[in-house]
What we know:
- This protein is α+β, with helices and mostly antiparallel strands and 169 residues long.
- The protein has a single domain, classed as Regulatory factor, effector binding domain (Multidrug-efflux Transporter 1 Regulator Bmrr, Chain A).
- The chain is built from 2 helices and 9 strands; from the N terminus they run ββαββββαβββ.
- Strands 1, 2, 3, 4, 5, 6, 7, 8 and 9 form a 9-stranded antiparallel beta sheet that branches.
- The termini are far apart.
Amino acid sequence: xxxxxxxxxxPPLKIIGIERTGALSQIEEAFKELTEWASxxxxxxxxxxxxxxxxxxxxxxxPESAHWEVAFVVNELPRIADQExxxxxxxxxxxxxxxxHGPYETLSEAYNKILHWIKETGYETTGPFxxxxxxxxxxxxENNPENYVTEINFPVRKKExxxxxxxxx
Length: 169
């Protein structure tokens, strides 16, 4: 089940992350690695967790060789050098956002809805999109996928007037 699409201004986010190119099935393991790294280095992580997708817009992602990054928001950027874990600040961005309630296997419904909305309202995407795992297996005791809440964010901007609804050459 999805809520309606909304436009929101997101503030800058300080994150630690692990960026990879590989199968989407490796995301869960990467989150475990990042959690262990944060614990070992005494970095306080904030929830919810985030996954950024650097490939072209959904659904063009190859599930076996996608370019993605798992991340946690932090209050302070740690001063720890590491080849595996990046430390950075994401810029503030205007985002088209939709909230999906339910298992990850049904996320495509939310993606279809938000991408249709972006196209129909004269916006265009401007960078990596995100999944924010508001309620997921890590933060609910019963681990029922029907209770998952995932926020999908696409950075957007309004298209120039001459680009709206004009056929491609």
